[in-house]
Specification:
Blueprint lengths: L1 H8 L6 E2 L20 H11 L3 E5 L2 H9 L4 E4 L1 H4 L2 H11 L6 E4 L6 H13 L5 E5 L17 H9 L5 E3 L1 H5 L5 H10 L4 E2 L20 H10 L10 H41 L7 H17 L4 H23 L5
Parallel strand pairs: 1-2, 2-3, 3-4, 4-5, 5-6, 6-7
Helix pairs in contact: 1-10, 5-6, 11-13, 12-13
The protein binds phosphoenolpyruvate (PEP) and manganese (II) ion (MN).
Manganese (II) ion binds next to loops.
């Protein structure tokens, strides 16, 4: 209640979220109070005049939450990855007009995310939104869940008009990077943020490391820079247009060069076929990766970029080669 009231005082918070049923990775973690806590959230909602939101993962959750007068429901990352769970939630929601937010599934699969939104939409729910909370990976990284921004950007493109908010708390898993991730979300035109806050963050029963005090939450919001998407100033526009024209031209050249590279790869394919050589020579590939990385480094390109770039170029080359090698006319 104290956290809720302090958040309301910031004047920048539009809804209160709280987990009543908390899906935790390990059973020893705090898994929420359950239905009994719905009344607590409702009273926090009444005291602040803010709408309330909880996570639901099955039909009982939906029924209990709606009965308790919760305003918004969200589907958590572990549930969106499970079509059975999403369908059960959707079926229970049928006939209501509850606003529903769908978190991305834990694995970076945009189809699964869209599928979850579709299931709920097909049940007649139209007040839909998405929450980007990052994706789980095996690699160690300073993110708790890697943002893979290209996925929510692609979701925006595939489902125009769908509001998408960002959950920097679950992306970062720690306090010190929340500001930067929240700013990136704003720069990418996300429609809002879902941030975990607690009056005594270290004592929070779940995800303590990523909680901010209400005051820190206020400071984070105050430090955000809101840039405009539409450029109104004529001068900036012409300068920008000029730079964009240069980019268009460069991209055109990149595609020409790629087409040329593939045609050379095909000629190599014909040669390999005539001399009965396999498509892949591992040694040659190792050499390509090594030399390109060296050169890329000198040109200020990151190792990750150069590696990915050549992996994808290599894939395309192999596709072109195997096409000519399996073409009986060659
Ligand atoms: C949460 O929002 O507290 C939560 C459990 O998040 P996620 O479903 O993104 O892991
Ligand atoms: Mn959490």
């Amino acid at each position: 209640m104290q956290t809720a009231v302090a958040l309301k005082k910031l004047g920048r918070v539009h809804a209160l979220r709280a987990g009543v049923w908390k899906p935790r990775t390990r059973p020893s973690a705090f898994e929420g109070i359950g239905s009994a806590a719905l009344a607590w959230i409702r009273s926090a909602g009444k005291a602040t005049g803010l709408p309330t939101a909880v996570e639901v993962a099955n039909s009982r959750h939906v029924e209990d939450a709606l009965k308790a007068g919760i305003d918004i429901l969200w589907v958590g990352a572990r549930s969106s990855a499970n079509p059975f769970a999403v369908q059960e939630i959707a079926d229970t929601l049928r006939g209501t007009d509850t606003p529903v937010l769908v978190k991305n599934p834990i694995n970076p699969d945009i189809e699964l995310w869209i599928g979850a939104l579709e299931r709920i939409n097909k049940a007649g729910i139209t007040k839909l939104g998405a929450i980007h909370r990052g994706f789980s990976t095996f690699e160690r990284s300073h993110y708790r869940n890697k943002p893979n921004w290209e996925i929510p950007i692609e979701l925006k493109r595939r489902v125009p008009g769908l509001p998408i908010i960002c959950d920097p708390s679950h992306i970062c898993g720690r306090r010190d990077t929340l500001q930067a991730v929240s700013q990136t979300a704003m720069d990418l035109n996300f429609d809002g943020l879902m941030i975990e806050a607690h009056i005594r963050p270290d004592e929070a029963l779940s995800d303590a490391q990523q909680q901010l005090t209400p005051e820190e939450t206020g400071a984070l919001l105050n430090h955000l820079v809101f840039r405009k998407e539409v450029i109104t100033d004529v001068l900036t526009r012409t300068k920008l247009e000029e730079l964009r024209e240069r980019i268009d031209k460069i991209d055109h050249e990149v595609l020409d060069i790629m087409a040329e590279r593939m045609s050379v790869a095909e000629q190599i394919g014909v040669y390999k076929k005539q001399n009965n050589i396999t498509i892949l020579q591992s040694q040659r590939w190792d050499e390509i990766v090594r030399t390109r990385l060296q050169e890329g480094q000198m040109k200020n390109l990151t190792e990750e970029f150069v590696t990915k770039l050549f992996e994808i170029i290599h894939q395309e080359s192999i596709a072109h080669q195997s096409h000519v090698m399996n073409d009986p006319g060659q």
